[in-house]
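OP here, attaching both records as promised.
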Amino acid sequence: MLKEIPPSRVLSAGLAIAMLLFFTSVYIASSPLRLGFSVEQGKQGVRVSEVATDGPAAQLLRAGDEVLALRSSVGSLQLEPWDAVAEPDDAALFVTYNRFFERHRQIWAILSGEQLELQVLSAGGAAPSWMRLQPLALRGINHLPWLFWYQVGCGLAILLMGVSAWAFVQSERGPRLYALAGLAIAIAIVASAIYTTRELSLPPEWFLTLSRINQFGAMLFAGTGTALFWYYPTQLGRFPLARVMLVIVALTLTVNWLQLIPSLDAAARYPLLAWFAVDIAFAIQQWRCTRREPVERARLKWLIFAWFAGAFGYLGMVVTPQVMGLGAIAQQKYAWCFFVISYLGIALGIVRYRLFDLDRWILLVWFWFAFGVLFIVIDAMLVMTLNLETSMGLLVSLAVVGWAYLPIRQAFLTWLMPKDGRGVLHKRLPDILQQAFRHERSVDDQWSRALQAVFNPLTIAPLPEPLDVPTLRENGLRLAVPGMQPGQGFLLSYAGGGARLFDRQDADFCGQALALFLYAREYHQSYQSGVISERKRVARDLHDDVGARLLSVVYRARSDEELQGLARDCLRELREVIQGLQKDVVLVRQSFSRWQSEARERCRLFGLSLDMRLEEALADERLSPRQERNLSRILRECLTNTFKHARADVIAVEFKVEHNLLVLRYQDNGAGMLASAAGQAAGLGVLGIQERCRELGGEVCWWTPLDGGLAMRCEIPVKAN
């Protein structure tokens, strides 16, 4: 474990390296002779691409002229188009590569001699003529082209992004490799900036060295990138791939610099393509390993996009066409921007900046990038295979794109886009709110159920601290959501069963849904207040009117014992109803004590044994008057059915709680009945039991146990309503 260095020191060191590269490149690029013109490959020699208005060639040359030969006091040399190639590595064989540098050794010697003359074929088509040119001793900083500053800027930007990311995440090997790869490609780009923006040639002691430095940086960058996918975002194994890749890079450079094989493709370009294939394989394995790690999966998505966007761009525009013998689509000096884009994207992923947003953007970004590249490829293939002019090739490609490519792309996008596990939120909201306004469950319970249904988190835990608004936490790994009561909240972890991160859309939806659920809670409270007031009014009316009349019947029916008993039963039932209406909530243990006393008395009269139990976890739960009244009726009806029809001698009753449900289990050892016939046995009071259970938002079922008798199970929500 490496000791962490203060970020300020790492950043200072990175800045120092960047400044060293900058001043070194400026010094080397501005030191050679100044000719005052730039060249590109021509038909016979080198073509003049640009002439400085204040340079030595201002009055001698103009853009489009071709320089066919050079001569001075040192000697003369006939120029070739290949002498103006920007990148010597474009050669397919080392023979061509070596000949290029040998010719430039001669060119530089001639340029450094006295009485320099150029043989020029003017753009107007006149006969070639010799012109004397007097170079300036130094090119100077002011005359370095914009392409030099562009390349140096790309290299230093990549270096500083790599160092910055590593400075703040030193504990992980991935950012360390990322920073090393950034340093490597920065060295390669800065070296390229010097020799690709030369006027005609460079001092021989610098030219070959800069080319090899460019090769070194590119190889180290590619090798380190392969190791990066092995270690980041999760390590794929204990194999020390980073050290092995350094050895492979060293061996590849040895083969290249010593020219142990004749092909420059095999020594340089094939290894790059091979490592890129390994990158893809490691990325696929990383994808499998992070399927249940949403943060790592989000970082991997952005890493894959950023890395392969740059790699696809550079390899597709520069390396692959050269291997196929077609020539680079874009010159290397222009293609460095692909790596800047890569490093910017990777930096975002490594420092976990807005990963919950990147997780949602990544698929569309990949899609548009891939099909944009495909559009360019179609155009290039049409131009090359049909041998069309560029304008005609563009017209044909636009026709192909309009009639075939765009419809296929849209269909592919529709198929590719994953179905959102949350569903369309605004479509699900009415169903959720419909549940919230139901009275079978409390709004608090409905809110928790709604969060589970919409986001499918792996866990929902109570939040210890108060919260006012939904808040994303740990880069979208968790979502903190307020509860229905002040100071209450929930912490949702791992959305979509652990397959994705929470994002801002989730937080916004929770905020909107929370406001509606709070309104539902107020509605529930108002409804309950109205119900309580109405209960009290009805109870008062029953007591003052019906109760008084029943009491009169009891007193007047003293001579008729049967009528008096019936009147007393009615009065007792009325008192229970009135007490139920006047109650607020009651503990289960209190209701159970009354139910048990009544059941024992009834079983004693009919000669049955009763085993009636209450689970301790349920004892302190509260029942609403409606729940207590309906449970009383259900239990009483079950006992009545057993007494009248079952011919039983043992009854077992159990009250317990399971998964936030109050469970009433009733069983006797009588004659029993088919469960399929239970729904048709209205005479047994089954329909009444079903209705009462359904009124409480629960379910009921009957069955005949293997040892005989009849069993019933009634489940209702345990929270008071």
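Record two, same layout:
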Amino acid sequence: MLKSQFTLLSALVSTLLLGACASTEVVETHPIKNDHQTRLAACEVANTSISEAEDCAVANDGVIEVIHPQQEIALEIKTTSQPEAKSAEPEAVVVTDVWQRIGNQLTFAIPENKRVKVQRNWYLKHPEYMSRVTNRARPFLYFIAQEIESRNMPLELALLPIVESAFDPFAYSHGRAAGMWQFIPSTAKRFGIHQSWWYDGRRDVIASTQGALDYLEYLHNLFDGNWLHALAAYNSGEGRVKRAIKRNIKAGKPTDFWSLNLPRETRAYVPKLLALADILKKKDKYDFTWPKVENVAVIDVVEIGSQVDLAFAADLAEMDLEALQALNPGFNRWATDPDGPHYLVLPLEIADSFSQKLDAIDQTERLNWVRHRVERGDSLLKLAHQYHTTAQIIKQVNNLSSNIIRSGDHLLVPVALKELSAYTLSNEQRLATTQNRKRADRKFTYTVQSGDTLWDIGRKYKVSPQKLAKWNGMAPIDTLRPGMSLAIWLDDDGSQSDAIMKKLTYTVRKGDSLSRIASKFNIKINDIRKWNDLQKSRYLQPGQKLTLHVDVTRLKNVS
């Protein structure tokens, strides 16, 4: 019966998977032609095709590109609970829409200047954008509004995730920012947001919302109660805003936000938020329809006390695994973090039932286990990789005092209940989906070598670093690690397009030189040196093993 009741509620979490959108930034540009062969810029914002060059420019104005999952699942969301009466309203007026609840409490002054007008006109011209953003926000908007109200903070902050990430907990951007509130790792750590191999609290909507509001409260106090300064600092850093204020004081200029010399991104960031607030507050004036979000709680946070396999939890809750992961996007792997947080976000109507069922189950039954017999050559790291867990977990489970394991010993190892491909929103599966999405005629896998950069690889295969990053779920400035696998997509219109890259081990023969080997395999001498960490002064020795990465379609006669 619970399962049938949950059918409609599952829609609520599935909408988190809406993709291929950005807050108001260009995701990708394409040349298009009209009948007169006029080339216009085109872009896609929140899955909405924008063909006017001016609109694309406004969408991209000053905003760091935020990359989103491309998958889209749009399901109707229904609730069975009755809207609650909001006691603060006169004459017990019932507020049935969270957006209305927010709009009734907006207090920021909205200046009628060009910077706000441009952004407001863009939003008014593209209502499809707000529709898609609202679908993503729907499961969490009530929670976020409630958190802001409980702190007596301005409700304009509930609109900030629209500007930051279009309410996408899986969004990421350059500088390694991630999540709905776009935290970089260092700031997240500073405000108590836990990050580990198992879990990234920047994507956990509960943890990241609380961290973001902590940070905004700190900035508000730092800038003596000036919310526009605080918002600018949230975007570009408190030091940068403080320096801009000091420069203006020294020059005898005003120090309000509009007078500060700030980065282009920040100069557009605050007007975007103010434009959204103005439209929401005066939606009747602008004849703009915000998609309704029922003013009722739809999620609950359930304490679980220990690590649990997400597939086990989904089965216990009688809900789809992908839906559970969508409500709990902070968990990177197939299970929750053994070190916490020990909670799950669940649809409100099934939270109590799930909690009761879980309490009746022993903690050892929350994970699946294998008994592994240690073989020659095994190590904790090897076993951790094999079973998709960590060496520390294996040590803890087996009460090991060191990393030494011996052949013939038996170890208990926790393993995923289902095939890893079933955990579709785990790090590995999201990356696999991104890398396998067809971008061109042909795909091959490149293994990163020591010293590689996206720029070097892109130049070699005649693709931009930005495209390489996007194809591989990265930001363009992210660091590459040796051994990483990168997907490279090429068209069938050039010599590189038919590349089939293979990793070979070549045994140096008498008389070989780097020049001769490079010529034989149609590769560069410097690449051989880089792949094998060779010094220029060292000579090759017969029998020496060299690692080569070659395009087998371009080999000469090589035995």
